[in-house]
Each structure stands twice: as C-alpha cells, then as structure tokens.
Amino acid sequence: MGYKFATKAIHAGQHADPTTGAVMTPIYQTSTYQQAAPGDHKGYEYSRGTNPTRKALEDCLAALENGTYGLAFSSGMAATETVLKLLKPGDEVITGDDLYGGSYRIFTNVFEHYGIKFHFVNTSDPERIAERISSATRLIWVETPTNPTLKLADIEAIGKVAKEAGVLFAVDNTFASPYLQNPLDLGADIVMHSVTKYIGGHSDVVMGALVVNDRELYDRLFFYYNACGGTPGPQDSFLVLRGIKTLHLRMRAHCENGRKVAEYLKNHPRVEKIYWPGFEDHPGHNIAKKQMRDFGGMVSIVLRGASLEDTFKVAASFKVFTLAESLGGVESLINHPATMTHGSIPREVREKVGVVDNLIRISVGVEDIEDLLADLEQALG
Hints:
Elements lengths: L4 H7 L40 H13 L4 E5 L2 H9 L7 E5 L4 H10 L6 E5 L4 H5 L6 E7 L11 H11 L2 E5 L4 H4 L9 E5 L13 E5 L2 H14 L5 H11 L2 H20 L4 E5 L9 H7 L6 E6 L4 H8 L6 E2 L9 E3 L11 H6 L6 E5 L5 H12 L1
Parallel strand pairs: 2-3, 2-4, 4-5, 5-6, 10-11
Antiparallel strand pairs: 1-7, 6-7, 8-9, 9-12, 11-12
Helix pairs in contact: 1-2, 2-9
C-alpha cells in the first residue's frame, strides 16, 4: 500500500464488509468456519490460526512498519517467546544491558534453562555487539530507545553487523512506535511491539506483534504462533484496530507534551538526572535524530538525594499522573521501575545501567500540558 502513514493507519488491511457494507471491520466472534468439503474453505479453518478481525489488524500492522507479514499475539511476551523458539540449545543471543524486566526474565529464567546463552552488552556501541559474535550466535535482540533509561542503538549500523555475520536481528520498537521509527527499513529482520502500549494506546488491551519481510521467516514464526497458541481474540483485535486509527494524532501529542515535560524537569531542583533523547547532551541524541521522526513521550528522572521511601512518597502524590505499570496510553503514567516493571532484574544488574531506587519513569500522555506541569510541580514540591 503506497500511502502515507495516517492513511495506512486508517485503511490498511481493512475493507468494507462484503455482506453488509459495514465500514468498520466486524468482530468475527467465532472459533471455527464452515467448509464446503474437507480443505475447501474461504481461507479460515480455526481461529487459533487465523481470524478475519485479527488478519485485518495484522495486515495493518505490517503496513505501518513497511513490512510484508504481521502476526498479532496475546501479549508482547508471547511475541518475544515466539522469536526465541526459532533457537535451539547451544545457540547464543546478544542483547542489551538495559532491557525491559519481562524480557530479561524470560531470557534468563526461562530460555537459559533450555541451553540458550545470552550476552548482555551496551547496544549503544555496535562494536560491543560485533566483538561478541561467535559461530554460535543466532540472534541480536535490541530495544531502542531502551526501557527505562532511553539509550539509543544505531539500527542501521547493527543491521550491517548482523548481515555480515548471517545473524537474525530483532528490534523491540515499543517505545518509538511505527510512527516514529521503522526498523525493517534500517536493516532489521524482525520488529516486535508490545501493542499494549502506543499502538493500542488506550490501556484497555494486552497484545504483542511481530512484523517481518521474509516469507520463510514468517512461515517459521507462524508455525509456532499457530502450534503454541499465544494468539489474541477478535474483540481485542478490533479494539487495537480502532486505536491505530488515531496513532499518528496521539504520537504527535505525546511528543509535544513529552518535550515540554522534559524541558520543565531538566533544571528542576529535585531532579538529579534526566533521560530524554531530545536533549542535545543525551548520548544518543544524534542517533535518535537520524532514525526517529521525533523523540517520543517517555521521560525518566532520578530524584536528587531521594531514598526509596522518599521516591515512593513522590510517586504516590500525583493527582493527574497515575501510578501504574505500562506506558503509551492517552493518560499520563508514573512508574517506579526498580519495584515495578524491572523488579525481576537483580539489584546489582539493574543498578549498573542506572535503574536505581530513586529513578521514576514517566509516560507523558495527551492531557492539557498546563495540568501535567502543575501536577509535576505539586508532586515534586
């Protein structure tokens, strides 16, 4: 589909219902489909494998990432797990030292038990990745920007390293969303999203997705997708399709508010350190300028001299921002990574990369900016 982003968000993969002319994709709330004879059907047999509502969503997701094939999963972790099922005992993975806690947990507490080895490196430096590649390396898994310290990885440079080594390269694009960044265009083989976040955008669905260009890779992923069954239902698929239609509008507002929140917090006396890639002194600023269309709505701060108890008090004192897990919804959220999203990472591991007890992650929503800044002022005060 050769249209621009907003047009694809509203129309890609979706067609008026041939029976009624309904403009919105129907919720096909069915588990099975009539066959004229064994194997003679209309492309659908059983909804674990394919469902028309989900297929419309998958085609739309693929279009937004400038990809060919999309797969929707019951969660981001189900999508991640499916990629890892491409591996076998003895294989090695190179990944980031600043990861979402759920990714770290499934890598170390699940797949290491099956004989897969993970190397955690600073993915901001492609050389650190290149020097870890061995004959056993099968996958490079990168988040950019990272969760929660917003480190940037140069997707194009890592893509060249991966291609030269003949290694699969997957990018978790959750923090950027397809509106801000398209890793397949930059050399990635697989894009993963926690659709729960910006793509769904309304904090009412848990879902994940993978997008690829290669048919053989898609077929391998689809096998595990169907065989293992981590697929979402049609109601959730319908809700995400609805959410996607405003993704471009929401992301503009997230970026605009995120910029104003970051600028407000940068010189605040209670803030010791701030992570936001839009600042010129952010180590990944130039990479962000090169591969992203804007700098996003995620901001993390370290509170000056705050104990864990002090940090808890601040986190619990917001009135507009909500203290909760997750991110990317229309509402602004406050998160304490050390005890919430990254609680499964050992203290010594997370503190090495800056996930300290007095760090707060902020998902800036699309409310009126004056109300958000006033709430930050009262909570920090």
